[in-house]
Specification:
Layout: H1 2-7, H2 14-34, H3 42-54, E1 64-68, H4 76-82, E2 87-92, H5 95-108, E3 113-117, E4 129-134, H6 139-142, H7 145-148, E5 151-161, E6 178-184, E7 193-200
Parallel strand pairs: 1-2, 1-4, 2-3, 4-5
Antiparallel strand pairs: 5-7, 6-7
Helix pairs in contact: 2-3, 2-4, 2-5
């Protein structure tokens, strides 16, 4: 894991590295009973979940981050460990996954994370977020007008994808948005990863 973090050119304290490893340990343990992820092998979890999540760390913007469809806390929990100066809201509608996230927040001592069980369609937090990130939710769902209204201005919407998306991203919910697509180099992962960055300024 240390090599992967170094390859991403991230600065990671021994305490952060310890928490990241503890997160993988929790994920392995809970996965046996709750089937949180299809990835079973801890080494694969490091590349496919942990390093994949951390590859978007340099793109975070501002001090409030909403992770939509967080599942087992991805990418939100690894990002929260590495960015303690920011506050993170981890949203998912699945009860067992949110229970895991709550337990992980307790076990890892993460004071900057708020797990939320809700569907994106009904989530009304009464605030806007400077970054919205998602690994699992389609662009058009997040960019529908009510959901796009969750993004602050200026703000960043970060959508994590596999292959380079060839469809045009419709940004009707953010009429003045600028779209950029970045290829992500994830250490020890030989499948393509891309990030759609939508900037609202």
């Amino acid at each position: 894991m240390g090599q992967g973090i170094e390859a991403l050119e991230l600065v990671c304290s021994p305490e952060q590295q310890e928490r990241l490893m503890a997160f993988i340990g929790l994920l392995v343990r809970w996965n046996k009973a709750y089937n949180l992820t299809a990835v079973r092998d801890p080494l694969e979890m490091v590349s496919k979940h942990l390093l994949d999540s951390l590859a978007v760390l340099p793109f975070l913007f501002g001090d409030s981050v909403l992770d939509i469809g967080t599942g087992a806390g991805l990418p939100g929990l690894p990002l929260a460990i590495m960015a303690p100066e920011r506050r993170f809201w981890l949203l998912d509608s699945n009860n067992k996954k949110v229970r895991f996230v709550r337990q992980a927040v307790l076990d890892l001592g993460l004071a900057n994370v708020e797990p939320v069980q809700s569907r994106i369609e009904t989530y009304r937090p009464g605030q806007k977020f400077s970054t919205i990130v998602s690994r699992a939710v389609a662009a058009e769902e997040i960019l529908s007008a009510p959901n796009a209204a969750l993004l602050a201005n200026p703000g960043r919407l970060l959508l994590m994808k596999g292959r380079q998306p060839d469809e045009r991203i419709e940004t009707a919910g953010l009429p003045s948005a600028v779209v950029e697509i970045h290829r992500l180099g994830v250490p020890f992962l030989d499948v393509p990863r891309h990030l759609i960055e939508i900037r609202s300024d």
